[in-house]
Amino acid sequence: MQESWISERRTLHLPGLTVDRHLSKPNQLEFPGCEQHLLCLLLSNGNRQKITCIGEQKSEKAQLKGEFWICAAKTPGLWAWDSTDQSLMFVIDPRLLHQTAEQVGEMDASRVELCNTIGAQDSQIRAIADLFQAEFDAGGIGESLYAESLIQVLMIHLLRHYCVFQPKPQPRPERVSDQRFQGVLDYIHSYLDQPLNLAELAAIADLSQYHFCRSFKQSFGMAPYQYVLQQRMKKAKELLQQRKYTVAEISSLVGCTDQSRFAKHFKRQFGVTPSEMLQE
């Protein structure tokens, strides 16, 4: 159900994370706390905030574009404002944060506790927000591997910079042999036409998702989702050169359900659209 003070809203539902972009009219909200962590980043100028209270923290300053607040799970809050603002809200399942902490292995997952924060600026948070916004504008997350990678980057950043108990520095892990990834590569090439996710690829390599992503990039110079996308476009080029299929059929054959996204990625890699290559 849409709250009366929200006039526009778009939402992405992802595993353990909901991303909500909304336009909020002037209002006052008293919040008893909830089971999720909340991170809200202001996207617009002209905020006229009267008061922000999160737990024991309080501010009566207006927010600036790019500033954000964090309200940890079960923390009460109070907000009052006189402006119409556009914001991006991340609703985070605490279990996702705990799971990431366990995978990273840099901290005791049982002690994961986010710091309540008001009026913070962070270029990394803003960059992650911009990437999620790009997905809103494109019509939704198009590749689960990409979405999972974005989520992981956000969770690790929160753990390292906005956690009550800071992670302990760990020695750089030994390089995973390329041979260990052979099964992963074989699997990717066998199922390019199917949705792929981080959990299944990491399981094939017998690594946590965090260490799989780090080791894969160390070995191949790119993130798993980038490699998968690259291979899909290479396969698409081969199919186009056979002149047997339409662009729509090739898009489906390489696991791209959105034809416009397919064309965009193809042109980025090869400098021409699939249709232009068919006409050559």
Helix content: 40-55%
Distance between the termini: 52 Å
CATH topology of the largest domain: Jelly Rolls
- Using only C-alpha atoms, the radius of gyration works out to 22 Å
Number of helices: 10
Give the overall shape, derived from the CA principal axes.
globular
Q: Would you list the SSEs in sequence order as H and E?
A: EEEEEEEEEHEHHHHHHHHH
CATH H level, superfamily name of the largest domain: Jelly Rolls
Largest sheet: 6 strands, antiparallel
Question: For the record, what CATH class of the largest domain applies?
Answer: Mainly Beta
Structure summary, number of beta strands? 10
Q: Which class of secondary structure composition applies to the elements?
A: alpha+beta
The residue ranges in which pLDDT falls below 50 over 5 or more consecutive positions are none
The structural domain count equals 3
Strand order of the largest sheet: 1-2-9-4-7-10
Mean pLDDT comes to 88
- Give the DSSP E fraction (strand runs of 2 or more residues): 15-25%
Specify the CATH architecture of the largest domain: Sandwich
Account of the protein in words:
Helix content is 42%, strand content 21%. The chain is an alpha+beta fold and 280 residues long. The strands form two sheets. A six-stranded antiparallel sheet has the order 1-2-9-4-7-10. The chain has a four-stranded antiparallel sheet with strand order 3-8-5-6, with no helix packed on it. The longest helix has 19 residues, at 224-242.
Summarize the structure.
This protein is α+β, with helices and mostly antiparallel strands and 280 residues long. The chain has 10 helices and 10 strands.
